[in-house]
Design a protein that fits this description.
By secondary structure, the chain is an alpha+beta fold. It has two domains: about 90 residues, GMP Synthetase, Chain A, domain 3 (2-Layer Sandwich); about 70 residues. The protein is about 50% helix and about 25% strand. The chain has four helices and six strands. The chain has a three-stranded mixed beta sheet, with helices on one face. Keywords: Membrane, Transmembrane, Transmembrane helix.
Length: about 180
Amino acid sequence: MIKKKPWIVTITILVLSLVVLFGGWFTYQTVQIKKPIENALASIEGIILYDLKIDRDQINVSISIQKIDNFQLTYHQIQDKLQPYLGKRQLNLDFKSKGIEDEKLMKAWSESYFYIAQAIDQHQYSLIPKTINALKNEYQLDKANYSMDENQIYIDLHQKILLYISFCLERIIWR
């Protein structure tokens, strides 16, 4: 009987230590990282958070963009707001369409994607505006915007009031 008590105490202390350790880690992740990220995204107009996954090496954020004026500006706002919470982690943004995706819009994008990727691959960026404008006219889109910065190309395709898709293509992918 005397020999069994130290094992019970040891196992009890081990279990309590693990509960405190993992409970503390879960609380830290929720209070110090997840909630502030959710609040930061909520402060950006036109953004709805769908899913947030925090891993050791990356933060995956799935969001929907509602009616916005400038996708590039909104994209940079998202990055700037989330930068303090990244540390050494990589930020992966996944943009979702609101509601059911419009078949016409998806067909328009899939037909133009090759030409845009080819223009990026051949470093002929001046072909992108022509492709986007032709796409807008051919599919009678409500709006088709494009913009570029030193790292990325931003493309917005809008169809109807409630449905539109935004794309962010990194040039590095095609180099």
